[in-house]
Amino acid sequence: MESKSILLGIETSCDETAAALVRLAAPDGPAEILADVVLSQFAAHAPYAGVVPEIAARAHVEAVDTVIAAAMREAGIGFADLSGVAATAGPGLIGGVLVGLLTGKAIALARGLPLLAINHLEAHALSPRLAAHAPFPYLLLLASGGHCQFLAVEGVGRARRLGSTIDDAAGEAFDKAAKVLGLGFPGGPALELAAQSGDPGAFALPRPLLGRPGCDFSFAGLKTALARAAQMEPLTHQRQADLAASFQAAVSDVVLDRTANAMAAFEARGGGAAPLLVAAGGVAANGVLRAGLSQFAAQRGYDFVVPPKRYCTDNAAMVALVGAERLQLGLIDGLDAPARPRWPLDSEAAAAHPTHVPGRKGAKA
Ligand code: KG4
Ligand code: ZN
Q: Which residues are near ligand 1 (CB < 6 Å)?
C-alpha cells in the first residue's frame, strides 16, 4: 500500500513548469510531499508584462523533462516506484497543457501506469489538504490569475459553484493594477510589497458589489478607478505605495463582504457541523487577505485553512495530491483524455450562469 500510493504530478497550464512526488498513505489521509520542483518563466514574460502563450509553450517543452528528472532525483525514487501519473489537463493555455499532458501520457504508457488527467481548479481546490487537515465539505475561495469564485467543495470531483467574478479575476486585477503603477510582473507580489510602505486610506477607491446580495465579484471598475487616480499626478514613490495600499484594501474589503454572503449560501447547502473556510490560488498568498480572512472566519465561528504560500501559486504537488486521491477512488482516465483550454469545476453552474473571464489566460470558466 505504501509504495502503491506515490504519484508523479506534472503542471504546465500557465507559466510554471512543475513536477512533484506525493505519497498518500490512505484516502483522506495526510499527504507526504517527497519532492516539489517549480521552474517559473517570469523572466521570459516580464518584457511583455503578461504571459505570452507561445513563449510559455516553448519553455515548457524545453524544461519539462529536466524538471521531472529533478523531482525524481530529489525524492530518491525511480519510475518503478510510482503508482500513477497525474498531469494537469486543463483549464489553461492549451500549448502548455498539451506539453504536460502528453508527457504524462508517455510515461504512463511506457511504464504501464494509470493516468490521472487533473482539472487545475480541482488541484487548487484541494491544495489546502497538502499541509493541513481540511475535511470535506468546506467553503472555498479560489482566487488566482484566471479565476475568482466561491465553491462548496463536497468531495473529490464534487464542487458546487456559489458565485464567480462577472469580469476580471482577482489576480488579473492585481496584475493590471501593478502594471498601471509601474511595479513590474508578476504583479500580485510586487503590489503587495509596494503597499507595505503605503497608506491604505490615502485614496477612496470603489468597492464593486459591496453590500449587494449574492457572492459574485467584479473588479473592472476598481481597476479603471485606480488607472485614473494613477494618471492624475506624477507617480512619486509614495504615491505609488499609497495607491497600491488603497487598491489592496479595496480588494480585501470586497472579498470579506462577498465571503459573508458565500458563508450564508454554504450554510444553506448544509454547510458543515464545524464550518471550514479555505482560501486557495495565487491571490491567497497575499498577506493582507490572509490576515483579513483569518480574522473574519474566527468572528463567524469558522475554522480557516490556507496553504503555505508556495502551494497557493501554481505547483505540481497539488496536482499529484488530486491524482492520489482520485486513484484511491478508482477515478482513472484513459490515454485519450483530452487537453481542455476551458474546463469549469462545476459544469452545471457554468452552463446555467456562464461568466466570461477575459485576461492574461483567456476565458476559462
Ligand atoms: O494560482 P496562480 O499561480 O496561477 C493561476 O492559476 O492563475 O495565480 C497567479 C496569480 C497572479 O495573478 C498573481 O499576481 C497573483 O496570483 N498573486 C498574488 C500574490 N501572489 C500571486 N496576488 C496578490 N498578492 C500576492 N502576494
Ligand atoms: Zn493556478
A: 14, 144-146, 171-172, 174-175, 186-189, 192, 281-283, 285-286, 313-314
